[in-house]
Amino acid sequence: MTKQTFLVTGASDGIGAIYADRLARRGHDLVLVARRADKLAELADRLHAETGVTVDVVSADLAKIEDLARIEARLRDDAAITGLVNNAGIANEGSILDADPDYLSGMIDLNVRAVTRLSAAIAPRLAAAGTGTIVNITSVTALMPDGFTAVYPATKAYVLAFTEALQAELGPKGVRVQAVLPGITRTAIWTEEKLATLPAHMVMLVDEMVDAALAGLDLGETITIPALPDMAAYTAYIAARAALRPNLSLAHAAPRYGVAAAV
């Protein structure tokens, strides 16, 4: 990639902080967004000292509409920003049987609304310029909603579908769009106690995950699954999905339902 300025959300630690580090080492300037201003400032100072890139920090809680609106305005108005990494998100809602409705709403606001509105804020500029990059961090749970909790995989399935649609619309206009689907990654979203109960071969270090995601971007992938050994398996999944399309919307109900055709 040629030099860009990337805005990275959820940048104070974990996946977002490693993205900031790797993008800085590629020579890209940064705008880092997260709630923790102190951690952002510490990261920004280190990256500037080590790489010389310009690093701006913005403290914002993207689950709050007023903070989200500030970042949207920055993406619309700051022509220097040509890259967006939508990384901010939360999980750990627990069982739907005893879920906190306010927590679920906050998860949807951050995982879905923020990703949608930030992408929509920058997309017109990028499309008009015929260049730029949007990276959306989703999750392998988007492909296996029955293997986790109820709401988190649903939000990540939205991000995956949203990214595919963005690529279909923006790709022909010169904008690079990528969805990254990490598996279990050693970040603060997982407690050490929980990680200790999981097989070690299922847990990836965050540095390796981000390095693989950036390699996928370099390869021109729209969908990057860092742990998947052979993307032919995903290609076959997409082909099977596409094979359904001719029969998903027809004038009459399928015979198995025994519904008489309307006269």
From TrEMBL:
Pfam families listed in its UniProt record:
adh_short
Q: Which UniProt keywords apply?
A: Fatty acid biosynthesis, Fatty acid metabolism, Lipid biosynthesis, Lipid metabolism, NADP, Oxidoreductase
What does the record give as its pathway?
Lipid metabolism; fatty acid biosynthesis
Q: Where is the Ketoreductase domain?
A: 4-183
> What family does the entry list?
Belongs to the short-chain dehydrogenases/reductases (SDR) family.
UniProt cross-references to PANTHER family, sorted A to Z = HYDROXYSTEROID DEHYDROGENASE-LIKE PROTEIN 1, VERY-LONG-CHAIN 3-OXOOACYL-COA REDUCTASE
Protein's name according to its UniProt entry: SDR family oxidoreductase
Per the UniProt record, the source organism is: Novosphingobium album
Output the lineage of the source organism.
Bacteria, Pseudomonadati, Pseudomonadota, Alphaproteobacteria, Sphingomonadales
